[in-house]
Design brief:
Blueprint lengths: L3 H6 L12 H10 L24 E5 L2 E4 L4 E4 L14 H12 L9 H13 L5 E5 L2 H16 L3 E5 L17 H4 L10 H5 L1 E4 L4 H11 L3 E6 L15 H12 L2 E5 L11 H6 L5 E5 L9 E5 L1 H4 L18 H14 L4 H22 L6 E5 L2 E5 L8 H5 L3 H12 L3 E2 L8 E2 L7 H17 L2
Parallel strand pairs: 3-13, 5-6, 5-7, 7-8, 8-9
Antiparallel strand pairs: 1-2, 2-3, 4-10, 9-10, 11-12, 12-14
Helix pairs in contact: 3-12, 4-12, 8-9, 13-16, 15-16
This protein binds ligand KE4.
Ligand KE4 binds next to helix 5.
Length: 448
């Protein structure tokens, strides 16, 4: 077996056969007649990386197939939910059974109590919670509760963090806004944006200074306790602790937006790893197992201000939908099996280490990786970013070349240099082996 270096020297540099994308191209052209950008969520449009978005037809385990029949090792995993692999038989069976009893009742069900109790048993900070149909609804509701509970209006967020398309949080946000270079959305009244204070992620002094100046007006701080929407950026030592301390000192609420990290980085989210207990937590993605689901919750005294108990109104026709709850419960049962996160974490970490080795052996020194649990960051930069500015310095063009080289070899990374990637437990074995082989060829292809 040739070494990596020999493999790369002998790498067959013939152009990788351009994939057949005729059906995706036709569907994309057709979709743009009725759907803005041809997609129902901007990041799917490949605007940042260029080329034709792949229209998926089906997915199973670690793989997805597009409309032209091309198979991909999928590192988007529906942007996090597919942590047990696509179309897991236990999840599908649970959905089929629930659906056979009716899709939605607009009335409470036992399963909603079961999933709320399950979540509370893993995230004790969520003493009470309410289910929603998306992460955006969860964060929108959480900041409304913070404002209603404290009677204050200002919310602190951090540049590069994305908390869904909530009007007042679409200010210097990450994910698709960052991808398209418009971190603050049009359509958000200036008066809304004025209630949002944007600070630098990991800037402990900046947080302290802000609270010293505005403490009495701050209802809450919302943070991605591990950021995944400006690529993967972890908190530096003391950052989350400083947020906790400042909120306590000034009577503000600390909101951990764990929509992405909840049951993705570990069985108790970032709060279980960091030991920092938020007042409110938002969840999504994994807890729905791929079906529309979110949740917000936290301190009982805070959540008792939510209607019908208290004056903060929040509602939803499909909140706690029985089919979505069934998918979520089935998924959560699988991730809570002994050893699940240990296996997912070590698989992800070794994949990252191997990609870094392959890059450096191919002569690509401006590349590094990081991971936590089943989420990862690929950076075309020499060092792992700890700030939004660090991320902004990464070589986006080289990422885009790498993205397409891998896509053409059947590996589907997030179509943006500003997104984290996701691994499922089904990636073990052949999917990862295919990924590493594609990476050897791709780094050889894009070598400068
Ligand atoms: P949804 O409304 O998309 O379910 O959740 C919004 C949200 C809230 N908080 C965090 C930390 C999130 O990451 C998200 C959504 N994440 C993006 C991925 N970067 C979803 C992908 C998309 O927008 O299409």
């Amino acid at each position: 077996m040739p070494s990596n270096r020999e493999f790369i020297r002998n790498a067959d540099r013939k152009a990788v056969m351009q994939q057949i994308t005729k059906k995706s191209e036709a569907l994309f052209a057709q979709a743009q007649q009725t759907i803005p950008g041809g997609v129902n969520s901007p990041v799917r449009a490949f605007r940042s990386v260029g080329g034709t978005p792949r229209f998926f037809a089906k997915a199973k385990g670690a793989y997805g197939w597009d409309a032209d029949g091309n198979r991909y090792v999928d590192y988007i995993c529906s942007w996090g939910p597919a942590i047990v692999g696509h179309a897991h038989p236990e999840v599908i069976a649970a959905v089929q059974e629930a659906a056979a009893h009716g899709l939605s009742f607009g009335a409470p069900t036992a399963a909603e109590v079961e999933i709320a109790e399950w979540i509370r048993s893993h995230l004790p900070s969520m003493e009470m919670m309410r289910l929603t149909s998306s992460g955006t609804e969860a964060t929108m509701s959480a900041i409304r509760v913070a404002r209603g509970f404290t009677g204050r209006s200002k919310i602190i967020k951090f540049e590069g963090c994305y908390h869904g398309h909530v009007d007042s949080l679409l200010v210097k946000a990450g994910s698709g806004l960052l991808t398209f270079g418009n971190p603050t959305s049009a359509g958000v009244p200036k008066s809304f944006a004025e209630e949002t204070i944007v600070l630098d992620y990991n800037d402990i002094d900046g947080v302290k200074k802000c609270f010293n100046e505005h403490g009495a007006a701050i209802a809450g701080v919302i943070v991605e306790p591990v950021a995944g929407n400006m690529n993967l950026v972890k908190p530096i030592k003391g950052f989350l602790e400083a947020l906790r301390q400042q909120c306590d000192a000034h009577g503000a609420l600390l909101i951990f937006d764990e929509v992405m990290t909840g049951f993705r980085v570990g069985p108790q989210g970032v709060q279980g790893i960091s030991g920092v207990r938020p007042d409110l937590t938002t969840l999504g993605k994994v807890i729905g197992g791929g079906m529309p689901m979110g949740a917000f919750g936290g301190r009982k005294d805070v959540m008792q201000c939510v209607a019908p108990l208290g004056p903060v109104y929040q509602a939803g026709t499909l909140s706690g939908n029985p089919v979505a709850v069934a998918a979520g419960l089935a998924t959560l049962r699988i991730v809570s099996a002994p050893g699940f996160f240990e296996k997912l974490t070590s698989m992800t970490a070794s994949l990252m280490q191997d990609l870094q080795t392959i890059a450096h052996e191919s002569g690509e020194e401006n590349f590094c990786t990081d991971s936590i649990g089943g989420m990862f960051g690929l950076y075309f930069s020499k060092t792992i970013p700890i700030t939004f500015d660090d991320v902004s310095q990464s070589d986006r063009d080289q990422f885009n070349r790498f993205f397409h080289a891998m896509l053409n070899r059947g590996v589907y990374l997030a179509p943006s240099a500003f997104e984290a990637g996701f691994v499922s437990i089904a990636h073990a074995g052949d999917p990862i082996d295919q990924t590493l082989q594609a990476a050897r060829e791709s780094f050889a292809e894009i070598a400068r």
